[in-house]
Amino acid sequence: MPLSPLLANYDLVLLDLDGCVWVGEQCTPRAPEALAELRATGKRVAFLTNDARSSPEEYVRKLWSLGMKASLEEVVTVGGAIQHVLAQRAPGAAAFVIGSPAIFRHVVDAGARVVNGTERASRAELVVVAAHDELRFSELRTATRAVLSGAEMLAAGRDRTFPTEDGVSPATGAILAALEYATEAVARSVGKPAPQLFDTALDRLGPGRALVVGDRLDSDLAGAAAAGLDGAIVLTGMTDREQAEAAREPAPVAIAENLHDLLVAR
Ligand SMILES: [Mg+2]
Fold this sequence. Notes:
Rossmann fold, binds magnesium ion, six-stranded parallel beta sheet, five-stranded parallel beta sheet, alpha/beta, 266 residues, 35% helix, single chain, elongated, 21% strand
């Protein structure tokens, strides 16, 4: 099956994971075939997610388990984007980290020095903020003190909530709101709709014209526009056709029932 004519305009395809490549534990209809077709025609691919709790390794495993090839380099999490931002700074910066073990590892891999649990914590130069399941009040207290002492805040995102099996949970944006309110500082956020996740993906994939594919107008499409990229919307997630067709500034370059229909000619 040939690719759809839309793809002739692009060398790189940046795919949102949840609601686009998969929904929960199942891939969207014929997503593995569409991905294989993309690769067969030499398009470069990245997989993007605003989720700060899992590591790139876990996403690579999930993609393979659902029948889709992927390399670590191709998976861009907010942790990976945080690492990219931090790696551009002088190495050895003292960082206080709120986040999952995956986030701690990205901070260390960027060359920063994690000062959690040391006397330096409340005088860290950087505070990294990402939602995690074990959040304690003392983390908010230390982060508040560090920011009031001049630390810069770098956040995984501004999402208010995320869905879990038994209901919604507060996301990074909710924790960040507490810190920004306490300190009157404003964090730099790397998660969609900020352009950093896309910038990190392009940094890894190299030059070429890129198409962003996602299921959300407010994060995928708006984030693509912020990064100066075209965006397409699939209807397997958070957006219905009426909403997608009504979207302006930016308007999607294409709307499709699912990823396979978007990428593969019928
Ligand atoms: Mg999504």
